[in-house]
Amino acid sequence: MIHQPSTPFQNLVILKVKTTSQEKNYDFPSEVIQISAVVVDVKNNAIRENMMFNEYVMPVINSKLTENCVKTTGVTQENVNNARSFRIVNEKFSNWLESNQLVGVKSAFVMDSRVDIWQRLQYQCALIGVRMPARFRQWINLWTVCFIEAESMPEDNTRLLADAFWIDVPERRLTAPEECLILAKVVQNLLAQKFHLTINQVLTCFSGVRAQGLPIAEVYNKDWKYDFKLSPKFYELVLPLIPWNVTNFDLNTYGMCPGCNMVFSYCRMVRFEPAHFQYPAWLYRNREDIILFAKQAHFY
Q1: Which of 231, 233, 277, 299 could hold 26 in an S-S bridge, CB 3.0 to 4.6 Å?
Q2: Are 84 and 58 in contact (CB under 8 A)?
Q3: Which residue has better confidence, 277 or 288?
Q4: If 0-12 CB within 10 Å is exposed, 13-18 middle and 19+ buried, where does residue 261 land?
Q5: Distances, alpha carbon 105 to alpha carbons 75, 138, 195, 202, 252, in Å
Q6: Phi/psi of residue 244, nearest 5 degrees
Q7: pLDDT attached to residue 5
Q8: pLDDT tier for residue 202 given thresholds of 50, 70 and 90
Q9: CB 187 within 8 A of CB 193
Q10: Which GO terms describe its molecular function (predicted)?
Q11: CB burial class (10 A; 0-12, 13-18, 19+) of residue 291?
């Protein structure tokens, strides 16, 4: 059934990213091991079954997946052993987006949290020494659209969003393509109910957290790497780009960094090589232990 769209975009690309992990260790240098995407045609409020992307990625730092990683992601050791590098898969994904005309102001990424793009994809780019692609700098966070409280654990967000719209979800572990399809159904419900779906999170080069620093008690807290609520603060200090919540998105600012008011291609965080230059040296000087994820990405 054709309806009046409640979003300025023609297509919504639901994206899921899976990474390596170690149980209850948020200082683990996570590498992307799977990228999946499905597309919702906004005008017809339909999932475009002819437009689906799913590729596994071979990890380099920790090539052997942990038991926790296999359990939480559904990605097997065989999957990644036969996969290609992130550079190749990322290029393939970019070509897929362009060939299906899913780039520019006609389309927007949709996520179930801020983690997949801000933390996982940005960190992966840092690991291999490439700039964060401009296409990943803005997205629609469904969690922000549907809930007021803080985000849950990323692996739980899809299930909780499905529950909010009475969407049946298998009790077993979900694969990345299955999560994409479930989130696509959430999007369909939101469109049918006239929710205004537009960009609500952008990666910016300005960091108030980095400028202000953390309380001394948190800087010296050696248990931060085991604390789900505290660990994101360290990522905000270390990663070059920071999530910025957008309340009233103007389509004229599509592709613009809110930190320096420059288009993403000329944003001050990508005009330098390497892109990351806001090293929080004070953070590293005041720690006796090594921040592994930062060290692995050559941030210090």
Answers
A1: 231
A2: yes
A3: 288
A4: exposed
A5: 33, 11, 19, 14, 9
A6: -125, 120
A7: 57
A8: very high
A9: no
A10: 3'-5'-RNA exonuclease activity; nucleic acid binding
A11: buried
